[in-house]
Design goal:
The protein has 494 residues and is mainly alpha-helical. It is built from 20 helices and four strands. The chain has a four-stranded antiparallel beta sheet, with no helix packed on it. β2 and β3 form a beta hairpin. The chain is globular and about 80 Å long.
Length: 494
């Protein structure tokens, strides 16, 4: 009887998704990162668990590439230039110089560790750097997921800095990984000039292609809008939102493919493309964003479940001790040292901010995906590299992922202002000269009276809705207000 059938694949895939979502719901109770839960669920269903066999590194690499495109594009789409403008310099330094220093410092430690007689790893210098390079970037899915799920504000523009770093540092780690694999491949001879040229091409072509493809996508969106406005019958708005979302996804993968074909860095191009689109005026912006958010969560869940299936936990036991040493070194020495060295010229960043940035060096799906490249390339010791990277990722998510906000509180970096969540679910078209904002009432707001009539609202503003607990109240001038009420206010912007 053939067990590898379409029905069984769908059965197993759907079971993994359902189990992951239901188990993941409890993660908030224990303070565990949601994506860690999906990684563990994949391991429970894998070879050493329920026995699902999955060991195809080529397929895993392809699925990871597709997922990473979606995740990076979504991160770029949510990156507002107004928010990152004050932190562009430190963010880019961390995503370039910081990654290089992390790889070098950690690689030197791994090389030193390999020379010890009591360890069971024996990597030469270049393989040591390769192992470190796969883990040198912070994981965008983990950082976006953890920071996005928290309802606290961070001081000193730390959130946009960390999101910019995690969204833009994967290309550098990818380039280091590919260059080091080439250096270990028989018949390949890399010179310093060749490496420098490749770096310039990767980042130059990647940045230019990302910007141009972002502009091209916006032009295609405008063409689609003009096409839909012609004729007697107008397209259903919900259908238009779905079609524009699909058009955007198509452009994402086209961006990656065409940039890679031009010898550029496709991941960087996709991220920049997302930034260009996310900072433009889009029709049906909320609908498109929700579609992309849902697709991003699906991509993250699928890739973490797949990576959990891919690993054989019993193989990690053989490298558990040395992996623990490497992971602790990265958390306590490698990441902090690279952060402090790379940010040393910037005097405006406080010591507490540097300590927090050092702690939020989260590893996740990206290092594990990059660790499949040596395996596919047939590099000697690639199996050990993959298992060590997986162990370090688990350690990072367990230790750092569960203490991000706690560390921010201990360092006094929580602003006390909750991130403004989508309380009312109301959207205005971007082209309208109005904006929406929410206001949570305090005793001070009601000092002159407890009705809207008594409140001194600025000219050109109007309260559209009141939320009290779980109740939604239509406002009027005599409605009595209490502290804690949330007001949805529409405001003229012209």
């Amino acid at each position: 009887m053939d067990l590898i059938t379409s029905e069984n694949i769908l059965l197993i895939g759907s079971t993994l998704l359902i189990a992951g979502v239901l188990i993941g719901k409890s993660s908030y109770r224990f303070g565990l990162p949601l994506l860690l839960i999906f990684l563990i669920v994949g391991m429970l269903f894998g070879t050493d668990g329920l026995g699902i066999q999955f060991s195809d590194m080529h397929t895993a690499q392809f699925i990871g590439m597709v997922a990473l495109n979606v995740i990076l594009f979504s991160g770029g789409l949510g990156t507002k230039l107004s928010a990152i403008r004050p932190v562009i310099l430190p963010g880019l330094i961390l995503s370039s110089v910081g990654v290089l220093l992390t790889a070098l410092i950690t690689g030197l430690f791994i090389w030193w560790l390999s020379g010890m007689s009591w360890t069971n790893i024996h990597f030469a210098f270049i393989p040591s750097l390769l192992l470190a390079a796969t883990m040198s970037s912070t994981d965008s899915a983990s950082v976006f997921g953890i920071l996005g799920s928290q309802k606290v504000g961070l001081r000193n523009n730390l959130r946009p800095m960390l999101e910019l770093e995690s969204g833009s540092n994967d290309p550098m780690a990818y380039m280091l990984t590919i260059i080091l694999i080439q250096a270990l491949t028989p018949g390949q001879h890399l010179s310093a000039s060749a490496v420098l040229l490749e770096l310039v091409l990767q980042f130059g072509v990647g940045a230019a292609a990302g910007f141009l493809m972002g502009k091209l996508t916006l032009w295609l969106i405008s063409i689609y809008g003009r096409m839909g406005s012609k004729g007697d019958s107008r397209e259903d708005p919900a259908q238009a939102t779905s079609m524009l979302s699909i058009l955007m996804v198509g452009c994402v993968f086209f961006t990656f493919a065409i940039t890679t074909a031009l010898a550029g860095n496709g991941y960087l191009a996709v991220y920049i493309c997302g930034i260009v689109i996310g900072n433009a005026v889009l029709p049906n912006h909320r609908g498109i964003t929700k579609f992309i958010d849902g697709l991003t969560w699906l991509a993250q869940i699928v890739v973490f479940l797949m990576l959990g299936l891919l690993v054989n936990p019993h193989e990690m036991l053989g490298v558990a001790a040395v992996s623990l040493l490497i992971g602790v070194f990265m958390i306590l020495v490698g990441r902090p040292l690279s952060v402090f060295l790379s940010l040393a010229p910037l005097r405006g960043i406080t010591l507490r901010s540097r300590l927090f940035v050092s702690w939020v060096g989260l590893r996740g799906a990206v290092p594990i995906i990059f660790a499949t490249y040596p395996v596919v390339a047939g590099i000697e010791g690639a199996g050990q590299i993959f298992n060590i990277v997986f162990f370090v990722t688990l350690l990072s998510l367990l230790v750092q992922g569960t203490t991000v906000i706690l560390s921010a509180r201990k360092l006094g970096l929580v602003s006390g202002d909750e991130a403004d969540d989508d309380t009312f679910g109301v959207e205005l078209a971007d082209e309208l000269p109005t904006s929406l904002q929410t206001l949570t009432l305090t005793e001070a707001h009601l000092a002159s009276g407890n009705t809207l009539r008594d409140m001194q609202l600025p000219e050109g503003t109007l309260v559209m809705m009141i939320r009290r607990g779980t109740r939604y109240i239509v406002p009027n001038g005599t409605r009595k207000l209490i502290p804690g009420d949330k007001l949805l206010i529409i405001k003229e912007t012209k």
